[in-house]
Amino acid sequence: MNDWRRPRGGACLDIQISHQSRTGELCLRLAQNTMKQLEAEELLSCLSRGRTLFTYGKDWYAVSLLKMAMRHSTLTQLKNTRLGNLLEKPRLRAWLGSLGKKLPTPADLDLLWPEETETYRLTAGLFNGRIQTSRKGKDAWNIVLQINLNENDARIIERKFPERSDDPFEYSWHPVHEGRHRTLAWARIDLDWSCGEALIEEIQNDRLREVGDYVARIRRQGLKTVRLNYQDLDASFILDYWDKRLRLSRQWWDEAILSAAVGFIVNELGIRCIYYHSPISGAKLKGDGAAKAPTSLYTDLPKRFCFDKTDDMPAFVKRKRNQAGNLWMYRICI
């Protein structure tokens, strides 16, 4: 049998966050417009260290986006914008129909709840952007938002892998949460306080990809046991973990982390103009393997979230755009 051990390395600093916006304090602390290490650390210092739970269900991003947009526009006004496309989603039509109102308010939307849900824990951390960031050098620090699996998952994994370093389903040099609760996915964010713009550099996960690879191999080869980190493990454990514990998360991990990231940027940081890489801008500006990222994450996903294609870019990367040639991104202002 093959030993499927994965190498490990360094990780990022992370803290808990809260849902309470602290934009005023953040702006006072972040007077400069570059995301240097000090500025990134100051931003995190303004966020509460209490536990933050994030509950998600399929297509729930549509409700989240509408709630944010309806702070400034009515539902009737939104029907004539790109966000009006959300109203065509069958789930959202059913949810809104259950309210029994032609023009529901944001408070009405608070009464809605998805059919099946998973509750995660949100944490925020720092990423030292030596690679795969649009800005390089001292300005390349990113904020990392992580959605982490819950206590039930932690107990399952700890029983099999008591030492965190033996967990074969993550790379420690990626910006994962270092506490008990394993990271399902993360989003890296750059921002510029002087012009009120944020850029989502990437969304990514290790756990689903790694477990999924093992599951495919087990089923393809008909394996009964596998060797993970120098120990023999029943293949049934991995199959059960995939089919039961990760059943819901693997259906929506990408929209869950992007929904959490947009909510974090708007509600916590008070920034309403959000950019998101296209495959072209990501490959040109980030480099170092960014071109190999799954295309759907940078095409289908932002379209679902009503991001518009734009030739414009955040002010803090426009100089790099001039050096890299014609580029485009996605943008939403909400």
Summarize this entry quickly.
This protein has helices at 23-29, 37-45, 60-69, 75-78, 90-99, 106-109, 151-160, 207-221, 235-245, 249-268, 279-285, 300-304, 318-324; strands spanning 14-16, 53-56, 118-127, 142-148, 183-192, 197-204, 225-228, 231-234, 273-277, 308-310, 329-333. It is of the alpha+beta class and 334 residues long. The chain starts with 13 loop residues before the first strand and ends with a strand.
Can you characterise this structure?
This protein is of the alpha+beta class and 334 residues long. The chain has a domain at 14-58 and 116-207 and 251-333. It has helices at residues 23-29, 37-45, 60-69, 75-78, 90-99, 106-109, 151-160, 207-221, 235-245, 249-268, 279-285, 300-304, 318-324; strands spanning 14-16, 53-56, 118-127, 142-148, 183-192, 197-204, 225-228, 231-234, 273-277, 308-310, 329-333. The strands form two sheets. Strands 1, 2, 3, 4, 5, 6, 9, 10 and 11 form a nine-stranded mixed beta sheet that branches. Strand 7 (225-228) and strand 8 form a beta hairpin. Helix 8 (207-221) packs across helix 9 (235-245). The longest helix has 20 residues, at 249-268.
